Structures are given as structure tokens and as C-alpha cells.
Amino acid sequence: MITLITDIDGTLLGDPVGLAGLNGFINSNMNAFRLVYATGRNYDEFMDAVENGGLIEPEAVVLATGSEVRFRSAGAYKIDTDWSARMGATGFNPARIMRALGGIKGLMLQPVILPNKVSYVFTENDYTGITAAVYEKLAEAGLDTRLIASHSYYLDVLPKGCDKGKAAQFVCERNGIDLYDVVVAGDSENDLDLLLAFYHGIMVGNARRELREALEGRDIYRAKQGFAAGVLEGLKHFIADNKLRLEP
To answer: Whose CA is closest to 182, among 241, 240, 238?
Structure first.
């Protein structure tokens, strides 16, 4: 059985025709697939994508760039308290983070604050300089966190050790999924940890330059097609190469 763990925005969403093709392939082989999403979206944004974006409902979802995990049960997605406790045990403190970063020029706080994620957007082009200032302010405040910048626009402040890859591995451990049966897919910098955490990875054809450079020399399938069509291309590659088996 194949477990597909994939990003949403820029990987699945962006080409409705490609998504329909991927969904059709999965639905026609439903007994051979398990599906998990790993996204930067919060829960409400994820549900909007499922209800209005044409996504197949997954058995689990990694949300908020790895800081929240939910499993589907009785028609609802329930927060995994063990993962939340693990994130909380790092001492992550949104209020202290916001105070520490409040005066940095070129950085704007996003309105939704989550228990284990504080998100900003860059309002000036000096991404490197602004990020360096963020590291400095966090260090001065004694805050040990993880920073993930992506799309030359977003900056997520997360608990130490938090990312999509570790959260996805936790999902696999919890659900008894063999890591050799997993294939992951992504398009941007916040998918890097996910793509490096597993044996089989797909970088879709529309992937950002920063991700391409970070994965230079890595054993990742580089799809020619973009978005969901690239995910399907990668799946078929691994199946044809006998690295994944399309069977229950």
C-alpha cells in the first residue's frame, strides 16, 4: 500500500485539470492508497481547501507547517494531543515572540496566532537582512525556536525541532505506516524537511528556485509537470521503478 503525504498549495492546488487526474488515479486505486496532507494552512484554511478546492479527504493532516497534527475519526479531524504536548514542551511562547519581534522593520505579523506557530510576512525585499534581525532578537530574548522562510514572503516562527517532515514521521509512527511505503511531494522551501525525511520524494515541475537549489544532488524525483500532474507523474515513476507497489 502506498502512503502519499503531500503539500497542498502549489503542489496539489494550482491546476484543476491536473488535480482531477491525480484524484481519478487515487480513487480508481483507493484500496492501494493512504492519503495525508502536510500544509502551512491552519485548520479552517485546510477545511476550505477540502470543501471548495476539490481535495480528497485524507486520513490525517499535518497543519501549520508541522506544529499541529490531526487524525480523521468519526467524520471529524481531531487534534493529536501527544504531538501538541510535544510542541508545547519546548517552551514555545507566542506572546514573548511577538514582543521580541515587534520592532523589526520590514516584518508584519499575520493576524492568526496559533498555540505553536507565529507567522509573519516580509514587507520589504531584504529577506536575508530581516531574517538575520529576527534571529538576533530571538536570541537576545532567550527564545530557542525554528524559523522557516518561504516564497520570499512568509516567515514562520515555530517550536524548536518542528517541521513538516518530523510531524509526517509522527503520523506514520502513530498509524503503523512503513516509511519505505511513503512518497512525499512539495513545491516550496517549507517542504524541504518533508522531502528530506523520507525515501521517496517528488519535487513538482513548478517548484520554487530556492527548493531546487536546496535539493541539488539529492535523490529526489524532479517532475517535468507542475502541480498535481507532477505528483501523478512522480507516483507513476516510483510504481514503474518497483519502488512503490500499487496493491492493498
So the answer is: 238
Our CA angle for 60, 169, 70, nearest 5°, is: 25
The CB-side HSE value for 186 (13 A sphere, CA atoms) comes to 34
Residue 44 lies in a domain: yes
Give the pLDDT confidence of 109-147 residue by residue, as tens digits: 999 899 999 999 999 988 889 999 999 999 999 999 999
- Return the C-alpha cell found at 90: 519546548
Segment 197-216, tens digit of pLDDT: 999 999 999 999 999 999 99
Task: Locate 139 and state its grid cell.
Answer: 536570541
Number of domains in the chain: 2
Tell me if 245 is assigned to some domain: no
Q: CA–CA separation, 60 vs 71, rounded Å?
A: 4
Residues 7 and 29 grouped into a single domain? yes
Same domain, 15 and 80: yes
Geometric angle at alpha carbon 33, from 184 and 240, rounded to 5°: 70
Q: Are 120 and 155 in contact (CB under 8 A)?
A: yes
Domain range for 26 is 2-86+162-240
